[in-house]
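Slack export, channel: ligand-projects

TW: morning all. Re-posting the request from yesterday since it got buried. We need the structure predicted with the small molecule present, not the apo form. The ligand is zinc ion; the SMILES is in the block with the sequence. No rush, but it would help planning for next week.
GE: picking it up
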Amino acid sequence: MSNLRRGFKTWCENAAASYRRDLALGRDAALDPLILARHLRIVVWTPEQVPGIKGDVVTHLTVTDADSWDAVTIQSHGVTAIVLNSAPDIGRRNNSLAHELSHIILEHEPAHVFHTPDGHMLMNEYNAVHEEEANCLAGTLLVPREALLQAIRLGLNDSRMASHFGVSPQLLRMRRNVTGVDRQLSYSRG
Ligand SMILES: [Zn+2]
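GE: finished. pasting the full token output, ligand included:
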């Protein structure tokens, strides 16, 4: 059961098209979320790049516990930054970054905020509706419906499409499902 409000998916498609225009990308082009972050003036750090971070925390985040987190948004001294785990593959990294950017674009208020002793504010818990919205916007930013339709019409298989858009095969399949593109194509083929 979806919690998305009426018209939200269309809003996401329009946002995906409008950011591509802003970045002078074609409608069917892949969108690198690092470039979108720069456009939105949001800093993206690896754990090592976080100012003042302690060596044992870096080791914890990149070695000991590298599998347990993807990305976290920090507000620190008026700067919004996303700390992105560099361990996962590019598809998962792009999805995690697009997801965090989506919370920021949608101006979601976090459900819980954590303050670290050195004055960073971590925002990584949101309510279920906001999570669903961020997942929807992230998937749409990375794989807009029209671009997906075009790629399928060109005869690309799922793995070619996933690498074109820089996403995981799972995200690609999820977009095929939620956008209904296959249904549309089978109708138009009669
Ligand atoms: Zn989230």
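GE: first-pass observations. Residues 99, 103, 126, 131, 134 surround zinc ion (CB under 6 Å). The first strand starts at residue 43 and ends at 45.
TW: perfect, thank you
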